[in-house]
Each structure stands twice: as C-alpha cells, then as structure tokens.
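Researcher: Quick one. two chains, 380 residues in total.
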Amino acid sequence: MNLSNTFEKTLILGAYPLLALTVTAYEATAATAIVVIAAVLAWLTMVWLRSVLPKPLRWLVVVAVSGAIALGGGLLAPFLFPLSTAITTRLAVAGITPIVFTGCVTDEQEAKGGIVPTFICFVGVMLVAGLVREALGNGTLFLRQITASGTAIAGIMGTPTGAFLFLGATMIVARLAARRLVANVTAGEAHTLQRGNR
Amino acid sequence: MNEGVQVLLNYMLSENVMLVSFFGVTLLLTETEGARAAMKGGLIFATAVLVSTLVGTLLASALPGGEVIEMLTFLVVSLFAVSAIRAGGRLTGERLGLPAPLYAIPLFVGSQALLTQANLDFPLTFAAAVGVGLGVYIVYVLSTSMFEQIRLTETQSVVKGLPALIIALGILGFALMGFQLL
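Model:
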C-alpha cells in the first residue's frame, strides 16, 4: 500500500475536524475521541445492517446513528474537557464527516487494508495539529502557559488560515518523505543488484 | 448600514461556511470539476444550501424539544437537499471510495446549526441564509478555478494539486475575514 496516498486520503476525509477542531489540544482530543467512537459504531451498525436493509437505507441509518453519537459526545465533552458549550455543534458535525464512514465501504478487502492505517494517521495528525496550533497560536499547551511573558506568538495559527497552512504543510512534508523513502529504496535495490553482478 | 445587509455580508464573508466554519471543506477538496462547470454546479449547491438552511432553521425553531430534535431535523433536511442535488445529476458516484453525498452532508447540517445558534428573527434569518448561499457560491467557483489553474501550472510535484489549493484556500479565507490579524 502507498503510505503517502493513505496519508493524503486521511487528510482529505478528515479535513473538517482537522481544520475546525484543532485550535487547542483539548479540542483536538475531544474531536478525535468522538470521531473514532462514531466510526467504530458506524462500522458495527453497517455490518449488522448488511443483511437486513438495502444499501441506500443502510447509509441513512448509519448517518443517523453517527450523528446521534456525535451529538451525545458533543454534549458530554464540555463536562470532560475544559471546552465551551458552543463547541457542541461543531463536535456533532465532526461525527458525520466522511472519515467516520471509512469502515463502512462495501468492499471488505479495501476496508481491512485501509481502515487501520487511516485511523492511526488520523489520530496522530489530529493530536499533533492540536498541540502545534495551540503552542504556536496561543503560547500554551493544554491551556498551560509555555512561553515567557512578552514572547511574540504566531496568532495566525489559531485562525482558520493557520489551520489551512498546517494542513497544506503536512501534505507537502508527507509527499517529501514519501519521495525520499522511494529514492532510498531504489538506491538500496540498485546497490544490491550491483553487488550481485560483481 | 442596514442590519439585514450587515448579517448577509457577515455570513457571506467573515462567517463563511466553507472557509471559516469549514462545514463545506471536504466538498471543496473533492469536487474538482472545471471552472466553467463550477459556475452551474456552484449555483445548484448554493441554492440547495440557501433553501435547506432556511427550512431547517425555521423547522428547528418551530418544533418543541432540545438539541436532539434539532439535530434530527437538520439531518432529515440535509438528506432531502442531497437527494435533490443527486436528482439534478450532481453528487453521483464515489469519491475516495465513499458515496459522494457523504461529503456534502456536513455542509448542510453545519449551515443549519450555525443559523439556529445565532437565534435571529425571520427577516434576518432569511438575510443570513442568502449570505450563506452566496458565500458557498463564491468560494466554490473560486476554489475550482484555482484548482484548474494549479493543474495547468508547471511546479514541483510535491506542491502541485491539493497542497497548493489548500494553502491558496487559507489565504482566501484570510481575505474573507478581512485580514483580521494584520
């Protein structure tokens, strides 16, 4: 499997929570938890309904179930994390974004090969995004000050533009890393062939 | 300035549902038709968003019950809106292995939730819904035009395509918010 493609696909499917819910690390943690729980329950619902309902109805039920779970999570989150109640709606919408339904695809083989790496990538990027955006945009980590008073912060990282810049930069870094990996593997194979010929 | 116009401009620009609230961002990243086709496609999406936002917000304020009933109303209205778009020949097939309508649902649900939270009276709700629709249209057409231009431009393969589009969208979002940090 092409890791760069999986990573890029994850970033696109999870673009909404990645951009809208990573201003602080707490926000990112809550959103990640809701998306993962909604995804697992959506997958289980889809598996359960596979022999019961026709395809369009299955999707309707799965979307409704994910929405309900995300809304429940959104209502609960302000009690578990230091978040404002205004975030409930955004967390609820995170539960019906495409990443949640990755496991519900009809092709079993694709689901098995793609779902675990997709969610590992998603959880990692969400948490890193939350930490980086909070540290650079607010000068705090989990709402604790980490910069000395008077230190200039990059306030733009806390804005929607900062979210887009982070996402774009992550995609570029992933492509560069994949390119370097391919170059290293090719060089290694050429070296092995050369030694074999000698 | 008239209050209605102010609300309209607010929801079209600084509260844009595509680039500031991000509800429609997955749709933007996956619907990459050409700029010419986007003029018509954008109109369909914008009209659907306008109508569903208005209907969903009014239904949510009329129905008794709490957030659960509201969310259910938004979902039902969104599914109707997506079905209408599909009937018009858009949002068909799959994107990245998932049915295309799944990418539009957050936009419809989010727009309705945003306006319901604002708790405006009917004339202002109407102005806000028009602002949301206009914002969707402008950003959709600009985004697809930018993506078409990026595809035609010679540049490094690591930047070409989505990374360039995402950074460009970030700058566009900054402009819509009136360069607030500067």
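The CA atoms of residues 27 and 104 of chain B lie 6 Å apart.
Researcher: Thanks, that's what I needed.
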